[in-house]
Amino acid sequence: MRADTAMDMMTDMEAEAGCCREEAVSALCRAMREGRVITAGTAEHRVLLACSNQAMRLTAELSGAYHSPDELRALMARITGRPVDKGFGLFPPFYTDFGRNIFLGRNVFINAGCCFQDQGGIYIGDNVLIGHRVVLATINHGLFPARRCENHPAPIHIENNVWIGAGAIVLPGVTIGENAIVAAGAVVAKDAAPGTLVAGVPARQIRKVDDMADRTPATSGCGPDARQLAACGRTA
Fold this sequence. Notes:
Shape: globular
Strand order of the largest sheet: 2-5-8-13-16-18-19
Order of helices and strands: HHEHHEEEEEEEEEEEEEEEEEEH
């Protein structure tokens, strides 16, 4: 490696380390959860990029090799910056470009290939099942071309006992109500009421979950939940 290239890399790493100071990261996390617009080229955006690089390193470590359930929980705790419940289960790969605004409840299971864009805040309640390749996106950009460099964050709230099927996309500012089901492949642009099944593009209410009590459950592509994994010794 050329000396000038090595020096450039060191300078970039030192700058990133400065941007990743905990007080700067915590302030940015709060600002984005409150909906502050972050514009490219600003000091806040530099902190955001530094956090994104850190998240990419950690998710590459998580997704690039086999890890035991305990190791996965430890890596997820490093990604989110907070402890992870012992009932948490994850099948890699997993992707996030920020990580520090992910909030996980108890007994959450995330299946393989999910993408969490969490700058605006992703709040996941207890006993939530998230299927393969689900995308949770909390960032919009300015509509006009001259303002596309603006990042407009808005949180996603997933309440207790929600089941999100494979390939679903949840857009910024959406709340999925308690006990709701999001069908595979749905694009959820508006809130889903508690206890409802929503499906389609854009997603709309199909029926109440209570009306499905005598039906055979549909396949979501979600896989085993954290409690099932625990019964098999995977999360002990």
